[in-house]
Design goal:
By secondary structure, the protein is of the alpha/beta class. It is about 35% helix and about 15% strand. It is built from ten helices and 13 strands. The protein has a seven-stranded mixed sheet. The protein has a four-stranded mixed sheet with strand order 8-9-10-11, with no helix packed on it. α7 runs antiparallel to α8 and α9 packs across α10. It starts with 7 loop residues before the first strand and ends in a 9-residue tail after the last strand.
């Protein structure tokens, strides 16, 4: 568990409120509060837990506000550590909740499925990816699925201005980590809220869901979004306020580092697939991860597989790998110019 830092006054009506994520190595999520004449507007809300709620309420109190004064909240993306408290916040204050429509659509689809249905979908994906029976059974015995947060009531698209009187806060759509991930540019103060899109030391998870889906290209979207965010006007003047870790500058350089990291990962996968056709599980288990493969729980292995799948999907788009074999147990193989993959 990371140590949760203190609430911090960043000046000119901007506060940083670390909201803990209990029993999770991520430790905490920064919620940012911006003062406005109609009450503070938040960037993200934090994890849905009593301890998290208490930290948010106390952080607002230190900033000179009651929770029932909150005017609204912009959610950078739908993940639970960012959006979990939206429903509780709206109930306590009547605040509007804004999100990019692509992430709102993800939540709409999740709402229509029960916990059992979501768990069954993960199990089916693990089987098709070639996970060994022991991993599948371990997940089946203790499935972990997250309840979707309350849906937003306001849509915030690329370039749109946030309802924040007196401040020029605009959305920058940066898909990849999620389909509707948003960064937020406070132009008059050279500040950029980067959410999980750009972090100073680590790279966010970018996964393909379902694992064997041939639709979309989340990693391709993510790399394009990194290039775009690094070209923002005055990018190197911006102070970046991420959702995790620490504040940083040098946005363009950090975006290039993240792109380079994934390009190296893509080159490695091309070499590994070139050694022979592989299932998703086989390839994922051969890669190096922050935690050793042997120590990963089944859900963590599923998340690792989704990241591998996103890289394979981009390599398919680049024409470097292709699927072969039956749909219920696909393998990925190198594409040799002038050949057709086996079906």
């Amino acid at each position: 568990m990371r140590e949760v830092p203190p609430v911090e006054d960043l000046g000119e009506g901007l506060w940083s409120i670390p909201v803990p994520v209990p029993h999770n190595p991520i430790g905490f999520t920064y919620v940012y509060a911006l003062e406005s004449p109609g009450g503070p507007v938040l960037v993200d809300t934090g994890w849905n837990h009593d301890d998290s709620w208490d930290a948010l309420v106390d952080g607002l109190r230190q900033a000179g506000h009651r929770v029932d004064e909150v005017r609204g909240a912009v959610v950078t993306h739908f993940h639970a550590d960012h959006s979990g408290l939206t429903g509780r916040l709206r109930e306590a204050s009547g605040a509007w909740i804004a999100m990019h429509p692509a992430d709102a659509e993800v939540l709409r689809r999740q709402e229509g499925r029960t916990d059992d249905e979501r768990a069954a979908s993960v199990i089916e994906q693990m089987v098709r990816a070639g996970f060994p029976e022991q991993d599948v059974e371990a997940f089946r015995a203790s499935p972990t699925v997250f309840r979707p947060p309350a849906p937003p009531d306001a849509s915030l698209g690329d370039g749109q201005r946030v309802d924040l009187p007196g401040l020029e806060l605009r959305a920058v759509w940066t898909p990849g980590h999620t389909p509707g991930h948003l960064c937020l540019h406070l132009a008059g103060r050279d500040l950029l809220f980067t959410g999980d899109h750009v972090l100073p030391r680590i790279t966010p998870h970018v996964g393909q869901f379902p694992l064997d889906s041939a639709e979309g290209d989340p990693l391709g979207d993510f790399l394009a979004s990194q290039n775009r965010i690094g070209r923002l006007p005055g990018a190197d003047r911006l102070l970046c306020l991420p959702s995790h870790e620490t504040r940083f500058s040098g946005l363009a350089e950090r975006a290039r580092e993240i792109v380079d990291h994934h390009e190296e990962r893509l080159e490695l996968m091309v070499r590994l697939v070139g050694q022979g056709p592989t299932t998703l599980w086989e390839l994922t288990s051969r890669l190096e991860w922050r935690r050793s493969w042997a120590d990963m729980r089944p859900l963590a292995r599923h998340m690792a597989a989704s990241e591998t799948a996103a890289h394979l999907r981009l390599l398919e788009e680049r024409g470097l790998v292709a699927r072969e074999g039956p749909a219920h147990r696909p393998r990925w193989a190198s594409v040799i110019p002038g050949t057709t993959p086996r079906i």
